[in-house]
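All the exercises in this workshop are built on plain-text protein records. A record pairs a protein's sequence with a compact description of its fold. Backbone structure tokens are a discrete shorthand for how the chain folds in space. Once this layout is familiar, the rest of the handout is easier to follow. As an example, a complete record with its sequence and its structure tokens follows.
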Amino acid sequence: MLYFFHGLESGPHGAKYHLIREHYPELKSPDFQGMNLQQRLDAAAAITAGQSQLTLVGSSFGGLLAARLYALYPERIDNLLLLAPAVHTEEGDKVTRMPAAGQVRVLQGYDDDVVPYDKVAAFCQRFALPLTGVQDGHRLSSDSSQQAIIRLLREIHITN
């Protein structure tokens, strides 16, 4: 199962969702609008309860959510794709474990003015995770960023 977790100020069916859904029609995207992180964690835990072998794609605050959910329920999640993840916050410090490097991809814009590149790089270093940097901002909306999103997802997500 493949889930997309959207950012704090976006919705479940934005540009990244549509990009990924073109390649993966089975993509599910819960609506977390108006929820704080704890409410999102509770909702995501309920949505994924009883499931396993999940791949989560998290954008910005959704990336933080995906990382926190993995730390709480590693048995449910096989792979993570984190897109400009908001791990630069105190909540990011609460991520206590991540999957092995082969199961995680992180994409971060060098020119991100919301989530600093160096903070994401430090997070990746902490867990020995691969980081792909792109010449883009927080939205990761350039053609090269969009191509990277699909390429990185293909590297970790095996469809049945």
